[in-house]
Amino acid sequence: MSETNQATSETSQAMSNNSQAAVELQDVTRVYQQGKIQVHALRGLTLTIEKGEFTAVCGPSGSGKTTMLNLVGALDRPTSGSILLDGQDINQLNRKDRSTVRRDRIGFVFQAYNLMPVLTAYENAELVMWAQGVDLGKRRERVMALLAEVGLEGMEDRMPSELSGGQQQRVAIARAIAPEPSVVLADEPTANVDSETADKLLDLMEKLNREHGVTFVFSTHDPKVMERARRLVRLVDGSIASDEVR
Q1: Are 221 and 188 in contact, with CB atoms under 8 Å apart?
Q2: What's residue 16's pLDDT?
Q3: Is the N or the C terminus of the chain less surrounded, counting Cβ atoms within 10 Å?
Q4: In order of start, what are the domains of the chain with their CATH numbers?
């Protein structure tokens, strides 16, 4: 283990001992086979994300950012190592239980919004809660409150095609936090919007983090996101190059 990774490991362990972790990556590697070539996307990554963090993971293309988010989001499995969500090793779960973890405990905000085009803003925002079988009355109360909080009051019945890019991303954020997940993973959430809209989206996510304790982990190239993050983790060639808490 390099000195940087060792120091990061010790820092993560100390933080984990002092407060409750939302996510822990323990000596995680991910190796892809491309023909006869092995590509090491992550190399012994050890990192702890505490509840309530507002963390950005950055680095050049191919550094391992998206691979890390896919592993934490239970969309992929590591080659070796452990990934713990609220202390539970999600790699030990079967396919059905991993699907349940993704639905109930992880919120996703994607670069391309990933809204259902045939559903209204309200229906998109309630989708995860509907899949969970939450009572209609409770669902409606929470979704209406969330849409108002993200600035979409009065737009509940609009289709995605009737919303701007920034408004669609606000629906996606409401959908992500509606089921009160352990962590929200945001993959380049400001990439497809203009600078002013990006600022407003970051204001919103900071507010949700500050007032509701929502844990955010971003994968980003955007300097705006990096500037706002209270912790900045830089990856290079699948390893942690720096880990700055502000």
Answers
A1: yes
A2: 40
A3: C
A4: 3-245 (3.40.50.300)
